[in-house]
Design brief:
The structure is a homodimer.
Chain A (H helix, E strand, L loop, with lengths): L1 H6 L5 H22 L2 H8 L3 H8 L2 H10 L14 H10 L3 H20 L1 H28 L13 H16 L5 H15 L10
GO molecular function, one term (chains A, B): DNA-binding transcription factor activity
Protein name (chains A, B): TetR family transcriptional regulator
Organism (chains A, B): Streptomyces mimosae
Chain lengths: 202, 202
């Protein structure tokens, strides 16, 4: 592997962003199943050999393209309080971007469930890293004494966040807005973790 | 409409159950998009005219078939406590049935999002009635004094329930079990509603 990596051509961050943008465009246009490495190669004027060498295949390329869209990592948010961190996370992405990303993720859902390699790529590159980042944010709240170390709701915070994002459209017939997510955090996430919410927001 | 309903032939509950069973089988075999009224008619030896007269079309027929699978309506559970009601609801369906139903609902998700008529049928026949039934269950807890009338988490209970069901497979790499759902209710739903949980279960 060391000799191979010695001869591997590096891809610049700009070129990588351009490739990921093209992958996301194709994903929106044709969906996961119909997206081919040939089409990515043609649209980005890259060789298929480069794409395979760099990403190993379609599942990892697509998931890395999705991962590249994330603006803010939970572990990098550090306002000094859990409520502040959650609010900062919610507000880090504008509502339109949030809606577009939700639609894209949702369009991938059937493929994820029928394609073990894609599911594995999701777990390895997106889900597990995000869970670990969220754990850092929550662990800081535990260390500050805001949340009791053994609080049972700690392990369900991912379910609470995902539930808020996926359910509002179906239950509430509208996309989740910033106002909705902030109200949900104050009404559900913080009380479940035993964190007091300022009067008038609980 | 009254003259038409006067000449409408009634379908027996047994025949209806048989039709819904066939629709669900077809749904599992070919998916929503490829499911045709012709195929339903052929498999059930029904005339397409009957199917259209009774259900109005594929979206309502499919959603009614899914709705027919529900064993227990939330408003019919009445144990005397909110915690008891939630536990009874969770345990009303065995884990295998729960998993099968989740898989079927998930397989429909892309169609729901691309087909306004199917989404409308879901809202009219499944989502809104379920929300109303859940409200009855929650309203009883408010009337008993278990939950404060204006408790903000009340409006988010549907999000909490759906979040638990859809996220565990992705986050936890396993289907939601009874044990998971009961622990989630004690850790999240009841604390968010301000309902005390017995020691050792919180």
């Amino acid at each position: 592997m060391s000799t191979e990596s010695g001869t591997r051509r590096r891809i610049s961050p700009e070129r990588e962003a351009q490739l990921y943008g093209a992958v996301l465009d194709l994903l929106r246009e044709v969906g996961y199943d119909a997206l081919t490495m040939d089409a990515v190669a043609a649209r980005t004027h890259a060789s298929k050999a480069t794409l395979y060498r760099q990403w190993g295949g379609k599942p990892r390329l697509v998931v890395m393209a999705l991962t590249s869209q994330r603006r803010t990592r939970p572990d990098e948010v550090n306002t000094g309080t859990l409520r502040g961190d959650i609010r900062a996370l919610v507000l880090a992405e504008d509502e339109e971007t949030m809606a577009e990303r939700s639609a894209l993720m949702r369009s991938l859902s059937p493929a994820v469930h029928h394609n073990p390699e894609l599911l594995q790529a999701f777990r390895d590159l997106l889900i597990n890293p995000s869970l670990a980042e969220l754990d850092v944010l929550l662990e800081r709240a535990v260390l500050r004494g805001e949340v009791a170390a053994g609080r049972p709701a700690l392990r369900f915070v991912p379910h609470l966040l995902v539930g808020a994002l996926v359910t509002e459209e179906l239950v509430g017939d509208r996309l989740p807005t910033h106002a909705f997510l902030l109200a949900y955090a104050d009404a559900v996430i913080l009380p479940a973790l035993g964190v007091p919410v300022p009067d008038g927001n609980g």
